[in-house]
Amino acid sequence: MNKINQNQKLGEIVSMFPSSEKTFNKYKIDYCCGGHDTLVEAVNELGISLQPVLNELNHEYEHFISSHVEFKDWRNETATALIDHILDTHHDYTKKELKDLDLLVSKILKVHFEHHSEELLKVHRLFGLLKIELEEHLIKEEENLFPLIEEYDMTKDQTTLDKIKKFVIETESEHDTAGDILRELAKVTHDYQTPRGACTTFKLVYTKLDTLEKDLFRHIYLENSVLFEMLQINIH
């Protein structure tokens, strides 16, 4: 059985077995925006030891293989099929959560302002930035990038591919911006840990933000490391 090695790209590892996301999230290894980095590059950048991460990944990989869990390797699907999945699974979810959280973040800021104003003002500001960034980003993907990729998937027209490349550069830059905001949100909220005595709504907001973050990580990974790789676009 092939094992995970230090020179594999993070995105490749997640494609091999999706549950590796848990290990990467645990060590705060950026497999979404940083999916083109190798494992050794990622851990060196973070200043953490390689061997414990590598051992854990291989242990989980062996368990994954022996369990015979069925999963869809999107690298073997068409670009159009992957786009449909991204739209149905991630775009729809993100839009709904942004709408729900917009009301809830404002609510807890008002209710808990007296005791937690410093933290919640930062959360409110960062979430506002994230919401604007993502809403504009999703529209640009749906109206510009995805239709071009679907067209290229059918025609293999070089002119269309050249247009796609320009959008991909912009898209990955926007992914980086969203990733930076998410990292700051996690820092401000102490990895989404609510203060002692927090009310149910306060806990709900942090749980929703945490879940949104994890979904966006997978969403970005699918685009950067799978969809754009299908088109053999290398901008790194």
Query: Could you give the count of β-strands?
Result: 0
Spans of at least 5 consecutive residues with low confidence: none
Q: Classify the helix fraction into a percent range.
A: over 70%
What form results from the Cα inertia axes? globular
How far apart are the termini?
30 Å
Give the amount of beta strand, in percent: under 5%
Structural class, from helix and strand content? mainly alpha
What value does the Rg take, in angstroms?
Answer: 19 Å
Number of helices: 8
Mean pLDDT score, rounded? 94
Order of helices and strands: HHHHHHHH
Largest sheet: none
The total domain count is 2
Protein architecture, described:
This protein has helices at residues 10-16, 20-26, 39-46, 50-67, 79-111, 113-155, 158-188, 200-230. The protein is mostly helical. It folds into two domains: 10-67; 78-230, no CATH class. Helix 7 runs antiparallel to helix 8. It is globular and about 60 Å long.
What are the key terms here?
mainly alpha; 8 helices; 236 residues; 2 domains
Blueprint (SSEs and pairs):
Elements: H1 10-16, H2 20-26, H3 39-46, H4 50-67, H5 79-111, H6 113-155, H7 158-188, H8 200-230
Helix pairs in contact: 5-6, 5-8, 6-7, 7-8
Short description:
The protein is an all-alpha fold. It is built from 8 helices and no strands. Helices cover 75% and strands 0% of the residues.
